[in-house]
Amino acid sequence: MNTEEIAKKVVELVRKQAWYEALDTLYDDNIVSVEAFSMSGGSPETRGKEAVRGKIDWWVNAMEIHSFDASDPFVGHDRFVVQYDADVTDKNSKQRRKLSEVGVYTVKDGKIIREEFLPRVD
Amino acid sequence: MNTEEIAKKVVELVRKQAWYEALDTLYDDNIVSVEAFSMSGGSPETRGKEAVRGKIDWWVNAMEIHSFDASDPFVGHDRFVVQYDADVTDKNSKQRRKLSEVGVYTVKDGKIIREEFLPRVD
Q1: Helices and strands in chain A: count of H runs, count of E runs
Q2: CB < 8 Å from A in window 49-78 of B
Q3: CB contact under 8 A, A102 and B74
Q4: pLDDT per residue as tens digits for the range A3-52
Q5: pLDDT of chain B along its 122 residues, tens only?
Q6: pTM here?
Q7: What is the pLDDT of residue B111?
Q8: Measured between CB atoms, does B9 come within 8 Å of chain A?
Q9: Is the ipTM of this complex over 0.90?
Q10: In which domain, by residue range, is B57 found?
């Protein structure tokens, strides 16, 4: 798949909240996934498909997802961007909040090799 | 300035359509500016501040800008993203159209060293 096809597939799967299917079908084994902040004071970078699977496990277990919207993708060369707007409740703290961020994805040889998540700044 | 400060400044200046001020104050001399497509069959990459000034000259001369909106920035580490939605008429062809794209910016040592423009794909 080329960058545009992968971008459209990411949007399709995220809209279905099919996180594991996206990981298994679209991601390179050596994916680097970068958050803006680290959750536990460690590195904001996660390396490798199985480590990213752990992030999805955390997300699915920690959050009650009221809604999760993905924009149409923005595509150029080996890069694409998708905006996500979510309404979630942290199951632990019971705190409900809205998340707005973009994912910046890099594609190589038909797989996603890097993703960076950038939260909206008011 | 850090990444967030530069991101906010880009948004402030673009909302005023102060393209040259943004270039002169926020961009590195060795800026690399990447379009999704090349306009004349050449490289989609433009290198250096003066070459990017030429792109702005082209834009300002070629387009009648009815509106140009910039989103709040999305920021993480050395990267930020801004979504642009414009309503323009090409002065030459008289064709009016809406543009929707994101700019993906990379910052180093307080200056923008790379920008990539990715159009929205329906």
Answers
A1: 3, 7
A2: 71-77
A3: yes
A4: 999 999 999 999 999 999 999 999 999 999 999 998 777 899 999 999 99
A5: 999 999 999 999 999 999 999 999 999 999 999 999 987 778 999 999 999 999 999 999 999 999 999 999 999 999 999 999 999 999 999 999 999 999 999 999 999 999 999 999 98
A6: 0.96
A7: 98
A8: no
A9: yes
A10: 3-119
For residue B53, give the CATH number of its domain. 3.10.450.50
- Chain B interface mutation, best of A6, A104, A115, A122, highest count of B Cβ atoms under 10 Å: A104
Euclidean distance between CA atoms B107 and A60, whole angstroms? 33
Report the number of distinct structural domains present in chain A: 1
Query: What type of residue is A69?
Result: D
Nearest to B76 among A73, A100, A118 (CB): A118
How is residue B17 written in tokens? 């359509």
Tokens 């707005």 locate to A100
Give the strand pairing for A111-119 and A27-34: parallel
Buried b (16+ CB within 10 A) or exposed e, A3-25: beebbbbbbebbeeeebeebbee
Distance from CA of A114 to the nearest CA of B (A): 13
Q: Element (H or E) spanning B6, and its range? A: helix B3-15
